[in-house]
Amino acid sequence: MSALKELVAKAARGSVIQSSIRYSDEEAEFDIPVTVLKGAGTGGTIWIQAALHGDEYDGAPAIKQLSREIDPARLNGTIIFVPILNVTAFKAQQNASPVDNVNLNRVFGPERKGSFSYRFGRFICDLICENADQMIDLHGGGQYLDVCRFVMASVVGEKAEIVEKMAYHCGAELVHLENGADNPKLYAELSRKGVPAVLIENGGGLEALPEAVEKHKRSVMSILRLLGYLDGKPEERSGVPVTESADMYFSDGGLMLFRRGIGDEVRKGDVLLRVMRYDSTEYEIKCPIEKGVILSIHTAAIVKDGQYAVMVGKT
Ligand SMILES: [Zn+2]
Predict the structure, then answer these.
(1) 200-253, pLDDT tens digit by residue?
(2) Domain extents in the chain
(3) 275 with 161: CB under 8 angstroms?
(4) What residues sit around ligand 1, an ion, with C-beta below 5 angstroms?
(5) 54 falls in which pLDDT band (50, 70, 90)?
(6) According to DSSP H, which parts of the chain are helical?
(7) CATH number listed for the domain at residues 3-240
(8) Core-most of 34, 210, 255, 290, by most CB within 10 Å?
(9) Which CATH number is associated with domain 243-314?
């Protein structure tokens, strides 16, 4: 039995416990903070995390506030709150851990490597499967990315229906569901293993803005009501379906001269970003799909080659 499972089992009903999960291997060693709310009422267990990407700040304060505001006396079941998952990336103020610079949300596909993020990802995935019945993954674009309030999920396996409900009742403006077969993201791996999971994007930039934090809190509260952890009605079904999405990256570094904004409707060939290279020549990134909406876009003036530029969703 893992230390976390023991902690939850021993906790008194109607209590809040602050603790941490120890991770250590030959490359890294750290403690992941957790707050466990064990409800007075019986029910399942939901794992709610933020900062899987270390430079996404909107989810952590949302979790901290919710862990104080939700009354365990009114809670059915258990919530495991993890405000900062990717501790080494968070401390380094970057998306991926400096230990191996691998995106922790790309390590669950058919391609498996031996570096830290692959091992840490497996450790977290196993821990969630051992301890939780559902999972919510709060993201926030990143230092250089603004994001729409959108949700991503994999409708795969026996519990696909629950995944779909979680996605359409969290207040997101756009909903991107896919079949999840080879998807290398954590939510997809969890859904494949029978733990319904959704990834919620919202916010972005160098700080957590109160408005984005509030939206994350509302999404979580709605899902908690939907699944019966809390009494009350979840938000009405909402969200425009996104059938597919295209990710584009900067081919060269330079200065950004022009960019569109999140939520903009775009058509094939529309210029999404224009960059001046360091030799003063310019290039553009154009919309590759017939009709779509900008889900996330780079916002900083300086861009690096290979950096994430824009994500367009087909609507
Ligand atoms: Zn993210």
Answers:
(1) 999 999 999 999 999 999 999 999 999 999 999 999 999 999 999 999 999 999
(2) 3-240, 243-314
(3) no
(4) 53, 56, 139
(5) very high
(6) 3-10, 59-69, 87-91, 116-131, 160-168, 186-192, 210-226
(7) 3.40.630.10
(8) 34
(9) 2.40.50.100
